[in-house]
């Protein structure tokens, strides 16, 4: 069971991670990435990507996006910045950009990290972990026992 680090190029790529804890980054094209088994990490790049975590606890990071992202795990869709046109399947956790992001969880237990910027994090249903990061953030726990982290917050945040 190997942990793979897979990178695509400027074209449209297909990446398949396998059974380990993989890192998959498709590059700037419209890519397809399948993590399969393991706790995988997807790097949300430019292009309309299809990101399928498969089995395990999987994370999509939009940390390199130059514009804010809006990602909804309930709907399995992203828009804005590097998330624009993305389709997310079997993804549990999200990391936003350094801009203003809106991240929405699903019925599962999600970890939502906003990063810098004025973020809106909505855990929805489940036992969620929410961290807005640096910036004036709004954290909505939803149903379930949720945890809000203010460790990196330098500004006023609101929790609902």
Keywords:
160 residues; mainly beta; Alkaline Protease, subunit P, domain 1; six-stranded mixed β-sheet; 18 strands; 0% helix
Give me a quick take on this structure:
The protein has 160 residues and is mainly β. 0% of the residues lie in helices and 33% in strands. It has a single domain (14-150), classed as Serralysin-like metalloprotease, C-terminal (Alkaline Protease, subunit P, domain 1).
Description of the molecule:
The protein has 160 residues and is mainly beta. It has a single domain, classed as Alkaline Protease, subunit P, domain 1 (2 Solenoid). Helix content is 0%, strand content 33%. It contains no helices and 18 strands. An eight-stranded parallel sheet has the order 1-3-5-7-11-13-15-17, with no helix packed on it. It has a six-stranded mixed sheet with strand order 9-8-12-14-16-18, with no helix packed on it. A hairpin with a 4-residue loop joins strand 8 (70-72) and strand 9 (77-79). The model has no long low-confidence stretch (mean pLDDT 92).
Question: Terminal Cα separation, in Å?
Answer: 42 Å
Mean pLDDT: 92
* CATH topology (fold) name: Alkaline Protease, subunit P, domain 1
Strand order of the largest sheet: 1-3-5-7-11-13-15-17
């Amino acid at each position: 069971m190997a942990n793979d680090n897979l990178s695509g190029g400027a074209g449209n790529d297909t990446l398949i991670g396998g059974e380990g804890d993989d890192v998959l980054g498709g590059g700037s094209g419209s890519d397809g990435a399948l993590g399969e088994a393991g706790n995988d990490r997807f790097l949300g790049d430019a292009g309309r990507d299809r990101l399928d975590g498969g089995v395990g606890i999987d994370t999509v990071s939009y940390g390199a996006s130059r514009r804010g992202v809006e990602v909804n795990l309930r709907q399995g869709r992203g828009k804005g910045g590097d998330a624009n046109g993305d389709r997310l399947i079997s993804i549990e956790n999200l990391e936003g950009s350094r801009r203003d992001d809106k991240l929405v969880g699903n019925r599962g237990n999600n970890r939502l990290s906003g990063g810098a910027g004025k973020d809106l994090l909505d855990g929805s249903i489940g036992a969620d972990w929410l961290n807005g990061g640096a910036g004036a953030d709004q954290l909505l726990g939803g149903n379930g026992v949720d945890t809000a982290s203010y460790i990196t917050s330098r500004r006023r945040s609101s929790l609902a």
